[in-house]
Automatic annotation (TrEMBL), chain A:
The lineage of its organism: Bacteria, Pseudomonadati, Pseudomonadota, Gammaproteobacteria, Oceanospirillales. Residues 34-164 form the ATPase AAA-3 domain. It comes from Alcanivorax jadensis T9. This is ATPase AAA. Residues 227-282 form the ChlI/MoxR AAA lid domain.
UniProtKB/TrEMBL annotation, chain B:
The lineage of its organism: Bacteria, Pseudomonadati, Pseudomonadota, Gammaproteobacteria, Oceanospirillales. Gene3D superfamilies: 3.10.620.30. This is Transglutaminase. Residues 417-488 form the Transglutaminase-like domain. Keywords: Membrane, Transmembrane, Transmembrane helix.
Length: 303, 680
């Protein structure tokens, strides 16, 4: 647990004043889930992803998505080797431990689909040969919410593949001052010390599964899920997969908070980042506002 | 292949328990081979459960069946009748249990079980047995709940709780059906337990017989007075009059040449002359006692009453010697209601045959006594004077009242009066009557009970075997038969206070009381209180439940419905049942049809509600810790108490290591109560 705190502190040195989001990002990694960051350019998305990779000593690749990209550009391609007279696979950037998929909505649905499938299966099949991706494997994808020209918006079904979605937002004034006063961010990221090895991370994520959740808590999670389904301000409610994700994220959050059992607070903490991107409001509604209001109206204790 | 619906494992355990409980009353009183059979069946089932053997095949089961039938016939001499029938039923029940494989078999066993446990009520209708049968039914219902529960891993205890709730819900319905469904006379008359030997009065009296009775604390009968109860010294419960003496034993006798039909008056039959005279003597301004007696079974016909009883209710007759007689031997608890009127006894005449009988003495017995009586007769001018002299004689000479009198030799009358002078009531009554007859005064011995002890809870009277007593009645012209109790002259305490106190005050009595264990009934300690309470419950059970027969029911229904007709009863039944069901339905609706909240959940909502009432309204979606913060914001002084509560609560509610135990729940409640006080 101390290692996790240290990791948080390390990342916090480069991504300033965003403790909440950092903790959520770490939660996502512990829960073995993929992270979607939705933000304007220049808010520190790349820095965050890079810093996470350094702290956990993960192999890190970055892919800038464009509209002319093909699935092979991500997954890799079979090449004929004239020396051996055989095809050999040239692995694409997906064969790494932490992949930063920048502006994922710029790629065509076909390319997006290829990545998302790799994310879900944690393996890649090329020319009939299935290759597992390295362990652990995380995708941190970013998306620009404003600039929609020439983009292919990810449909909800695809968004479901991401365990959590967060946005960083503008820094607070005093934090920004500090940022301006500081040196080159790239330098700083390189100077970050790794706190936990990738094997350590795998061990930790196994611990997440051991965090206890009482029957009463599961009942609360179920009631939350049910509320999204019966609320007609939403187009559709959360899927059972979303529910499993919510519970897993809550477990990871509890672990990060140094507890071996889940409290309703843990569920509430991860609730917006797990639920919002999977839901869409009927016209005129704000998903964020409605999702938040459910936390107020759904009884924590059965009544 | 047809799917086999297995009985869930925890329900198999409940089923074994149910079979055992349902058969237990029969096993306790039945022949020992039945217990052996059930043990064998349970052992086999257990071995099968452990997978150490398979269920016995058709051959073995058939052999067991034949064996059970043969043994039943061997034990009872027949296969029908209540005892043999129930024994056979219980054996078949055990054998049916042996072949349970599927749910269907289990249903058969359970339904049979409801019937088997109810047969226990054929033999005993005590409140304890009733509770036991309810317990059996609850366990059977638990099996039903278990079989029908879809979650096979659910706890068996949970099913027990549900079954208990179902049983409790059935109780109001049971009361309605009990009150309203018409009592049908049984199609056949069952004589159950007809030859039970009990302690009690016999139809004769010889020295030592009553003192034997007084060693038993068994109940003889109970009396419920409507209105006043006569004082203890007046409570002479007459049972039998004994008029024939053979020198040692007093026996009942009827004067020669008197037909019994004239001697007994049965309610509703033609009234004999003596009864008409008795009735003629009654007037409304006379003092009388109205009471109901519930007699314990004695297998005899005689009953007990005060003074001159006029039967009001019950299958009883009045004899000319002013005692009540049951028309059938009393084989189970028996209730009768009478009016006792002391003043009318003078109406009875004494025929010459009767006078002859009441003066007869055995040849040769009591020569010295006869001399003494003769002397008194010469010296006195009236019968009452003679009686007074006799009482004085007992009082002045060194007579002792004792439960353990010395043995009397050849001539009991003289031996007692002039040598041992230590005796119990029967000695005094016997010798007094002898003296009176010898002095020419018609006299007889009366045996019955004297006194009785009041149950403070039920304000009814309890008469036990140790209240057994004997006294005399002498014929005084113009007064009729008059009670004289020579024991009162020797030991006034016996009459004024009762046997136990009389013994307490006598030299050897105290040790005797301890020997007999009788003292615990009166020492005011726990035992006395508990025994009073048990007696009260038993008495009320007797009067209200078992005594609710068809006569009582039609009386009650008349009060309730105005007139008793099948249509009215049907309407009352429908209305009552609908009302009850409606209440249950309302209750369910009220609770939203949901499962009940657990204690932990209620605990949270109570606090939530209290905080919302006293302060600003709070939303539903607050975690315990957020609720605590909301409270701390509004009531800063409660911050620490709220924090304590919330921390304890979330640990108990959300850390699923173990379910919270009672102590923890109590602690949580005390934390909440402490918090409550701060929310003002």
């Amino acid at each position: 647990m101390q290692a996790l705190d240290k990791a948080l502190a390390q990342v916090g040195r480069v991504v300033l004043g965003k403790e909440e989001q950092l903790k959520l990002a770490l939660t996502c990694m512990l829960a073995n889930g993929h992270l979607l960051i939705e933000d304007l350019p220049g808010m520190g998305k790349t820095t965050l992803a890079h810093a996470l990779a350094r702290v956990f000593k993960l192999e890190y690749r970055r892919v800038q998505f464009t509209s002319d990209m093909l699935p092979a550009d991500i997954l890799g391609v079979s090449v004929f080797d004239p020396n051996t007279q055989q095809f050999s696979l040239r692995e694409g950037p997906v064969f790494t431990q932490l992949l930063l998929a920048d502006e994922i909505n710029r790629a065509t649905p076909k390319t997006q689909g290829a990545l998302l499938e790799a994310m879900e299966e944690r393996q890649v099949t090329l020319d009939g040969v299935t290759r597992p991706l390295p362990q652990p494997f995380f995708v941190v994808a970013t998306q620009n919410p404003v600039d929609q020209a020439g983009t292919f918006v990810l449909p909800e079904s695809q968004l479901d593949r991401f365990l959590m979605r967060i946005s960083l937002g503008y820094p607070a004034p005093e934090v920004e001052l500090q940022l301006l006063a500081g040196g080159d961010l790239r330098e700083q990221v390189r100077e970050l010390q790794s706190v936990i090895t990738s094997e350590g991370l795998i061990k930790l994520s196994r611990l997440v599964g051991k965090v206890r959740a009482s029957h009463e808590l599961l009942d609360y999670v179920q009631r939350l899920l049910d509320a999204t389904r019966s609320d007609d301000r939403f187009v559709a409610g959360l899927s059972p997969r979303a529910g499993l994700g919510l519970l897993k994220a809550a477990r990871a959050w509890a672990l990060l908070s140094g507890r071996d059992y889940v409290l309703p607070e843990d569920v509430q903490a991860v609730w917006p980042s797990v639920a919002e991107h999977r839901l869409s409001a009927r016209q005129g509604g704000s998903v964020a506002a409605i999702t938040q209001s459910l936390l107020q109206s759904v009884p924590v204790i059965r009544r | 292949m047809a799917r086999i619906y297995q009985v869930p494992s925890h329900t198999r355990l409940w089923l074994a328990l149910a079979v055992l409980l349902c058969s237990l009353p029969q096993l306790v009183k039945g022949p020992p081979w039945q217990a052996g059979l059930l043990l064998l069946v349970i052992l086999i089932r257990w071995l099968v459960e452990q997978q150490r053997m398979t269920l016995p095949g058709r051959m073995v089961r058939s052999l067991l069946l034949i064996g059970a039938v043969v043994l039943t016939f061997y034990s009872f001499g027949r296969l029908y009748g209540p005892e043999a029938g129930v024994a056979l039923l219980v054996s078949l029940f055990a054998l049916k249990y042996l072949e349970v494989v599927q749910q269907r078999d289990a249903y058969v066993v359970i339904v049979l079980g409801y019937f088997v446990c109810a047969t226990a009520l054929l033999f005993s209708q005590a409140p304890g047995m009733f509770l036991y049968v309810v317990l059996c039914m609850t366990v059977l219902t638990t099996c039903l709940v278990g079989i029908n529960h879809s979650d096979t891993r659910a706890s068996g205890l949970l099913h027990g709780r549900r079954a208990l709730v179902i049983t409790l819900q059935a109780i109001p319905l049971m009361v309605v059906l009990f009150l309203l469904v018409p009592r049908v006379a049984p199609l056949w008359n069952m004589q159950v337990g007809g030859d039970k030997a009990r302690t009690g009065m016999s139809d004769s009296m010889s020295p030592g017989q009553i003192s034997e009775l007084s060693e038993s604390a068994e109940l003889a009968f109970r009396v419920d007075f409507q209105g006043d109860m006569p004082p203890r010294a007046q409570r002479y419960w007459r049972g039998l009059t004994l008029s024939h003496y053979d020198g040692r034993t007093w026996q009942q006798a009827v004067p020669q040449g008197q037909p019994e039909s004239e001697y007994l008056y049965q309610r509703g039959s033609e009234k004999p002359d003596w009864y008409k005279r008795l009735e003629g003597r009654r007037s409304p301004d006379q003092q009388y006692y109205r009471y109901q007696v519930i007699a314990e079974p004695t297998q005899r016909r005689w009953l007990f009453s005060l003074d001159v009883p006029f039967p009001l209710y019950g299958d009883v007759s009045l004899a000319k010697d002013m005692r009540l007689v049951a028309n059938q031997p009393v084989s189970e608890r028996f209730a009768y209601r009478v009016d006792s009127v002391p003043a009318v006894s003078a109406a009875i005449n004494l025929t010459s045959q009767e006078r002859q009988l009441m003066l007869s003495l055995p040849e040769g017995a009591g020569r010295k006594a006869r001399g003494l009586a003769h002397q008194w007769r010469l010296e006195s001018d009236s019968a009452s004077d003679i009686a007074q002299r006799a009482l004085d004689y007992f009082r002045d000479q060194p007579f002792h009242y004792t439960l353990r009198p010395p043995r009397l030799t050849v001539d009991p009358v003289d031996d007692f009066l002039f040598r041992t002078r230590r005796g119990f009531c029967e000695h005094y009554a016997s010798s007094f009557t002898f003296l009176m007859r010898a002095a020419g005064v018609p006299a007889r011995v009366v045996v019955g009970y004297q006194g009785g002890e009041r149950n403070e809870l039920g304000s009814h009277l309890l008469v036990r075997q140790y209240d057994a007593h004997a006294w005399s009645e002498i014929w005084l012209g113009g007064h009729g038969w008059t009670r004289v109790d020579p024991t009162g002259a020797v030991a006034p305490d016996r009459i004024e206070l009762g046997l136990r106190e009389a013994l307490e005050n006598s030299e050897d009595g105290r040790d005797l009381l301890d020997d007999l264990g009788l003292r615990r009934f009166s020492d005011g300690g726990l035992f006395a209180k508990v025994s009073q309470l048990m007696d009260y419950v038993d008495f009320r059970w007797q009067t209200w439940v078992l005594g609710y027969d068809s006569a009582f029911q039609s009386e009650f229904l008349e009060d309730l419905l105005g007139a008793v007709s099948p249509v009215r009863i049907a309407i009352a039944l429908i209305v009552a049942v609908t009302l009850l069901m409606g209440l249950y339905a309302l209750f369910l609706l009220w609770h939203g049809g949901n499962e009940r909240l657990t204690l932990m959940e209620r605990e949270y909502w109570r606090l939530h509600q209290r905080a919302s009432e006293r302060g600003r309204p709070l939303e539903a979606g607050l975690t315990p810790m957020q609720l605590c913060q909301a409270i701390s914001e509004q009531w800063p002084q409660a911050a620490i108490a709220a924090d304590n509560w919330a921390k304890y609560y979330q640990k108990l509610h959300y850390d699923p290591v173990s379910l919270p135990n009672k102590q923890q729940k109590r602690h949580l409640r005390s934390l909440r109560n402490r918090l409550y006080k701060l929310l003002d």
